Amino acid sequence: MKIPFPSLTFFQALQALMRQDEARFRRLGFVDTTFGIRIVTTDRAWQYLLTFEVFECREVREVSTFDLTAIDFVLQGDLAAWVEMLDNIRQHGGADVSHSLNTLTHFGERLTLLYDDPDNRDKFFRFQESIQEFFDLASALDVELPMSTAAGAVVTT
Amino acid sequence: MAYLSTIDFFTDRNFLDRWQRTLRGELDLGWLHAKTEKLAATPENPRRGLTFRDLDQGAYGFTALPEVVRQNRSLAPRGAELPEGLPDLQPAVSHKSEVWAYNTEGYYEEAMTRQWNATLDVPWHELAKYELPDDISRAYAQLLTFLTEVEMIATDVPAQWLGRLNNEFTEVKNFMATQVMDEARHSEVFRKRALTTGYGLMKASPQNEWSLKLIRDSDSFAEMSLALHLVGEGFVLTLFRFSEYISPTELDKKIFRLVMQDEARHVGYGVQHLKWVMRHFPEKREVIHQHLDEVENMVFGGGYAVEVTEPFIILAGKGTKKENIEHGTRITALFQMKQIEEYFERLDKCGLQERRQRSKLHNALELTRASLQEAGVIP
Amino acid sequence: MAFYLEKDYFEDLELFHLTERVMSGDLTLHWYEAKTERVRVAPRQPARGLTYEDCNVGSYSYDRLPDLIRTNYSMAPRGAELWGKLPDLGYTVNRKSDVWADNVAVLYEEAKTRRWAPAVDLPWETLARAPLPEILEAAMAQLCTFLQECATAALGITSHWVYAINQEFLELKSYLSAQILDHARHVEAFRKRALAGGQGLKRASVCAEQALKELLSADTYPTSSVAGNVLLGSFLLELYRYMAAIAPSPLDLRLFRLAMQDAARMVAYGTGNVRYHLRHHPQRASFLHDYLDTTEHCLLGLAGSPECLEPLILLSGGGSEASQVQRGSRAVAHFLRQTIADYLERCEHAGLSGRSTRSQLPQYLQRLGV
Ligand SMILES: [Fe+2]
Ligand SMILES: [Fe+2]
Question: Is A150's pLDDT higher than 50?
C-alpha cells in the first residue's frame, strides 16, 4: 500500500519501522528530544510533532502550531526540499552526500532549524545519527511523493 | 617519596588479630549499623533503566550537595558513613559551583549509551569504491591532520581535572570520564581516515598547538571549562557540522555525524555549567569576562592556521581552480561567521548578553559582516 | 601554571594581512607538499573493521617509535610534519618502555567492542521483584560501598597519568582512556547496585582507603602501573570472579561478570606493561621488586578490611547464622589463597621472577592460618 507524503501515516510508518529495528537504534543510544517537522508550500503547511524517548519514537502527531519554548527545534522546509530528500533516500537506501539532514540545514539553504534556545537546538546534533537513520528508514517504504515540476515546485495529489 | 598508608598491614598486630578472629567466625559487623539512609531506588522509566537521576534522593542525591564540601575529602562515596582515619585525597576543587552543570547526570547517561566505535561503526571497507580527485584528497588529509591533532587535548584535560575533583562530585567526574573516551575516539577516527586517503598525515598546526596550551594550562577548572567546553568545543561543533556539509563521501558524512553527537554533549555541559555559575554566582561575571577576553584572543589568533582554512576553502569549493576557490572562500567566510554567531548566541542564553558590546571578537564579526555585504557575498 | 598567548591578535597587522590574502583567494598552500609518507591503509579483515594494527605502517607505526621521545612535546600526531614553533605541553612521561605493552592496541579494540552501560544492561527490575534477604542485602550494600572506593582509586590512578604521557604514545593513551571509562562505569554500577537494594550505602573503610591512597600515589609510571593494574587489578579481578561465582541474584551475576571482563583487561595491560618494561630494562626488575616489597601490604589492607572481609563472609555463607559464618569463612579463606596465588603467578609470568618466594604475602597467609 502506498503511503502518501506529507501525512501523519508517513511518520507513523517510520515510527513503526524504528520499533521493529530496535537493536539498531538501541546501539545508537538514548534519544530524548521533541521536535517539529514543518512542510510548506505557497498556500499551506503540514506540521508534525515527533517525540523521541529512550530508544524509540514515542509519539507522532499532527499539530496546528509549535511553541518553540516548549520543544527543542523545528525542521522547516519547502515541500520540494522534503520531497527531494525523500526521493534521494529512496534511490540510495539512505541520504547521499547532498541530502543528509545536516547538509540540508547547515546554512539553512533547503531546510531551516527554528529554535528558541540554542542549547535545545543542539539536541539536533546530539542525536544526529539517530535522527538521520530514522529518516533513512523511509527507503523501505513505498511512499507516494507529490510530483515535482520542472521549476522545482510540487503538485500534491 | 609517595604517600605511605598510616597502617603497615604486614606488621600491625591489631589488624592481624582482628582478621584471625573474623576468620574464626567472630564478626564485628559494626558496618551493619552504619548511620546512613536506607534507599531502594527504582527506575523512573524501566526502559531507561536505573539512572543517576533516580538516585538523587536524600543524602545520596546531588541536589542535596552543599556548595562547599567540608566533610569528605576521601575516596568515600557520597552518602556513606565516614569513620575517623580516612585519608585526605587533597582534592583541588571542593566548590560545587566550580564544576556543576544543570543536567550533568543526564549528559552522563546519554554518553554511556551513545558510545560508538571508530573501528566498526564506520564502513571502512566501502572506501575502496571512492576515488577522490587529488586536490580534494590532499586538502582532506590536511584537514584530518589538524582534527586528529586537536582532539587529544580534550582527553588530557578532563583526565587531569577529574582526578583533582572532590569525590563527592561523582556525576561530574563520570561525565568527564566519558569525554576522555569520546575524544580519544575522535583522535582515532580522524587519524584512521587520514591514513586511508592515500596521503597520510600532513602538516602540524603550530598556531593551534599554542591554543591547546592555553586550554591545557588553565589555572582553574572554571577557566578550563570556559576555554574547552564552551568556546573551543563550541567552535569545533560548528566545524564538524561544516565538515559534514562539505564531506566528499557518505562515509565521511557518517564520521562527522557521529563526532558531532559527542561534541554537542560536551558543549551542552559547558553551556549548562556557565548557566549554573551565572545563576548561583552572579558575582563571577567579571572574572568570566576577563577569561573570555583571553579565550577569544585564542580563537582570533587561529587565523594564522592557514593549513586549516585553506583545506576548507578547497573542500567547500570542490577544487583548486579559480572559480572553485572563489566559491570556497565565500562559503568558508560564512562558516566562520556562523561559528562566532553561534558562540554569542550561547552566551546570550547563559545571561551574558553584554558580551557583544565588550568583545573584540564581536567587533571583528561585525567588520567581517560589513565587508562581506559590501562585496555582495551576503545580503 | 597559567599560560597566555604571546600577543593580542586583535591588534596584529600581520595576521590581518594574512587573513585578507587567503580570504581573497590567494592561498599560501604551504602545506600542499607536506614532507610526510603517503599511505593508504585498509582493513585487513573487514569483519574487524579498521583497527589500529591496520594503521601500524611506516612512519606512522607505533612499532618504530624510539624508546625516548625527544623531538615532540606537542600534540602533533605521530608521522605528521613538524614545522614552525611548536610549544612544549609539559609531558613528563616520555619513555616508551615505561608505558607500553605489546597488547595495547588489541586491548583498546576489545574495550570498545565490549562496552556496556549499567543503566540499560543490568536487569534492575529483577531486584525489585525478588529482593535479597535483608542481611545479604546489607552485606551487598557494604561490599558495593567498598568497591566504589576501589573503583574511584583506580580511576584516579589512570587519569592522573594520561595527562602526563607523551602524545606520541597515542594507542596507549587511547587504551588508558577506555580504562578510565571502565573505572567510571564501575563507580556508577556499584553505586546504583547499593542504592537499588533498600539498604543504601554503608561504611567507608579506613584500612582500604589508606591502602588505596598509597597505591594512588606511586611516583613513577612503572610503579604506578604495577600497583594499579597488577596488584589492585588482580585483587579486583579475583573479587569480581568470586562474586560472580556466588552471586545471590541474577542482577549481581550479570554485574560481576561484566565488571570481571573490564578488570581482566586492566590486568592484561598491567602484566603486558611489566613484561615490556623489563624486556627493555631487565635491570629494573630489582627496582620493581623493592617497590612491591613495600607496597604489597596494601593488598592486605584491602582484603582484610572489615568492610570487605565481613560482607564477603556473609555473602559466601548465605547469612549470619553461626554455621553460615563458618562456611563463609572457609570459602573466603580459599578466596584469599587463590587471590594471592594468582597475583604472584601474574608477577612471575610478567617477568618479576622470584616474586613468589620474595613476597611476604604467603607467609602472612600462614600467620593468618589460611
Ligand atoms: Fe572531540
Ligand atoms: Fe569534545
Answer: no
Residues B123-145, mean pLDDT to the nearest whole number: 95
Nearest Cα neighbor of C338 from C314, C317, C310, C312 is: C312
* CB–CB contact B268 A29 (8 Å): no
Of B115, B200, B326, the CB nearest to C37: B200
Residues of chain B found within 8 Å of residue A123, distances taken between Cβ atoms: 264
Q: How far apart are CA C184 and CA C268, in angstroms?
A: 19
| Number of domains chain C is built from | 1
Question: C204 at the B interface (CB within 8 A)?
Answer: yes
pLDDT digits (tens, 9 = 90+) for A104-131: 998 888 999 999 998 899 999 999 999 9
CATH assignment of A3-138, among 2.40.50.140, 1.20.59.10, 3.30.1050.10, 3.40.50.410: 3.30.1050.10
How far is residue B299 from each of residues C11, C82, C229, measured CA to CA in Å?
14, 22, 40
State the amino acid at position C287 in one-letter form: F
Helix (H) or strand (E) segment spanning residue A47: strand A45-53
Handedness of CA C41, C45, C50, C56 (dihedral sign): negative
- Residues near ion ligand 1 (Cβ under 5 Å): B 151, 183, 186
Question: What is the distance of C-alpha C199 from the center of its chain?
Answer: 29
Find the residue in B nearest to A129 (Cα). B257
Q: Nearest ligand, CA of residue B229?
A: 2
Work out whether strand A33-40 and strand A45-53 pair parallel, antiparallel, or are unpaired.
antiparallel
For residue B158, give the ligand nearest its CA: 2
CATH code at position C281:
1.10.620.20
Within a domain: residue C7?
A: no
Q: Which residues of B183-196 are buried (b: 16+ CB within 10 A; e: fewer)?
A: bbbbbbbbbbbbbb
Rounded CA separation B51/B34 (Å): 25
Q: Where are the domains of chain B?
A: 4-60, 96-374
Instruction: Tell whether C5 is covered by a domain.
Output: no
CATH topology of domain B96-374: Ribonucleotide Reductase, subunit A (1.10.620)
Between CA B59 and CA B37 the distance in angstroms is 7
Tell whether omega for the bond before A6 is within 30 degrees of 0, i.e. cis.
yes
Set of cell numbers at residue B219: 589555572
What's the pTM value of the predicted model, to 2 decimals?
A: 0.94
Cβ–Cβ of B256/A102 closer than 8 Å?
yes
Closest Cα partner for A121 from C35, C229, B357, B241?
Answer: B241
Query: What residue in B sits closest to C6 (Cα-Cα)?
Result: B210
B197 pLDDT higher than 70:
yes
Q: Which domain holds residue C311?
A: 102-368
Task: Quickly state the pLDDT bin for C370 (edges 50, 70, 90).
Answer: confident
Q: Choose between B219 and B56: higher pLDDT.
A: B56
ipTM value for the complex: 0.97
Q: How far is A123 from chain B (nearest CA, A)?
A: 7
Task: Identify the chains in contact with B, defined as 3+ C-beta pairs within 8 A.
Answer: A, C
Q: In this structure, is residue C47 part of a structural domain?
A: no
Cα C166 to ligand 1 centroid, rounded to whole Å: 19
**If you average pLDDT over residues C5-9, what whole number do you get?**
95
